[in-house]
Amino acid sequence: MTRILLVEDDINIIENLKELLKAEGFEVITAMRQSQALDLLAEQKFDLILLDISLPDGSGYAICSAAKASTLDNKNKDVPIIFITAYDDEASAVTGLDMGAEDYITKPFRPRELVSRIKNILRRNDKTRSVIEIGDLRVDSMKGTVHKGDEEIFLSVLEYRLLLVFLNNKGVVLSRNKLLEEIWDIAGEFVNDNTLTVYIKRLREKIEDDPQKPQIIKTVRGLGYKVGD
């Protein structure tokens, strides 16, 4: 079972998040103080940390720094961290990300969005996961192959990269700007908004049963695209 360390000093947030995350199948261990969190990190292994910045006896930054600096017998050297905080200024976000955190979400937040971000980060950090499946589509990122049913599908470099971006962000709405950031200039090709439209169309023609009614890469009107729930 995936183990999450929740470091937060607001008891209401703790209770609500524990209930939500347990319903998603996660084991949740909580700490309300910096000292308690550091003790837990020294003693136990976690798969992800949800970390408040402001704590009664210190700062979430100190906890992040300790984990990323591998000062805890390497138990949690590579643990992904999401900062959850009331601070919504750019400086706070940049500080956390520069320290090695994977994501940053401000209070109040939408619970389902947080769950989606957690699952997305866990997928990206699962080094043993090389085969991704959705419907009858199967992608083996170790071999670089794509199959639809029993038939192998051959994609261009950009089409393959675009497909991986979608599959590694299941359930997350990806804006066109985000997609452009992910595939920009890969393989030496210039990618603009019009080019992105062409590649999404080509990709759908290869992986969808009916490209006119896509069931894998779905359009979210006014926002972007999404794969999965």
From TrEMBL:
Residues with PTM 4-aspartylphosphate: 52
Keyword list, A-Z: DNA-binding, Phosphoprotein, Transcription, Transcription regulation
Known DNA-binding region: 129-229
Coiled-coil ranges (or none): none
Top-level division of the source organism's lineage: Bacteria
Residue ranges of every copy of the Response regulatory domain listed in the record: 3-122
Pfam families the UniProt entry points to: Response_reg, Trans_reg_C
Every OmpR/PhoB-type domain range: 129-229
Record flagged with keyword DNA-binding: yes
Protein name in UniProt: Response regulator transcription factor
Organism: Gallibacter intestinalis
Lineage summary: Bacteria, Bacillati, Bacillota, Clostridia, Eubacteriales
